[in-house]
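User: My collaborator sent over this chain with a note saying "see what the structure looks like." That's all I know about it. Can you take a look?
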Amino acid sequence: MFNATWLETFSTLCEIGHFTHAAERLNMTQPGVSQHLRKLEQQVGQALISRLGKSFTLTPAGEAVFALGLSRRAEEKRLRDAIEADDRNAGPVHIACSGSFAMLLYPILLPWMRAGPDLSVHLEAAPQAEILAGLLDGRFDLGVLGADPDHARLEAKHLGREELCLVVPADAADTPLSFADLEARGFIAHPDGYGYADDLLRLNFPDDYPGADRLSVRGSINQIGQIPAPVAAGIGYTLLPRSGVEAFANKASLSVYQLPKRRWHELWLVMRRGRCLSARARHARDIIQEAAGQLR
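Assistant: Without extra context I'll predict from the sequence alone. Here is the result:
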């Protein structure tokens, strides 16, 4: 790579066309300008100018190097402008969270995206391990995890918690439900549902719960936005975090059945430690906190 100082000296010399005046512009001596020119020519391996008395013309190599100098100036100016602007409505931001929280968060992000045509928001629903890995390798600016990762390269802020819910049709809200009643209805299964069952159903039906692998399954689906749909239609029951219930379009057709023993999942906002967030990442952080506030 060419020495940036020598390249800038040469570019200024080319613009002005005079050694003495170029030295004045750069606050240097004329011998200093000549020395930078010689060193740059040594790097290039060719002469960059042809002297004509006190004036000079550029060689073909000199013209190419001058063009490079101007290009680097333009790139540096664009970089400075981007840094100084730090517009919250321009540029990319990458967020990762659970599928249920993504359903709640995304509609809140949409007005911001509509207001910023130069903004690019990337929201990824991912498993906890993938979110953690993405934060560490820089793929995600912000992540929402279910626990403080307690990692030296990450910092975490507690957002609150969300309840793990037993979701039944709206007309079943006031009917006492035993485990046998749930089995009669049948479980609407999904990839996280079996773990949720071991968490919540075992807690509340310790004498009857046989384990997730022995549940009576009425149906299964891996599209998180559609998990509550059969329950809303009166078919079966399911288990979801509160965010998955709140984000469902037809949530009036659902009811969260209050079991004697409630279970909560923590929410932590996580980012790289010591990282100076851009204006857009800071605004995304505020929106995430707003979404988490809806779960209290």
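A starting point for your reply to your collaborator: The two ends are 56 Å apart (CA to CA).
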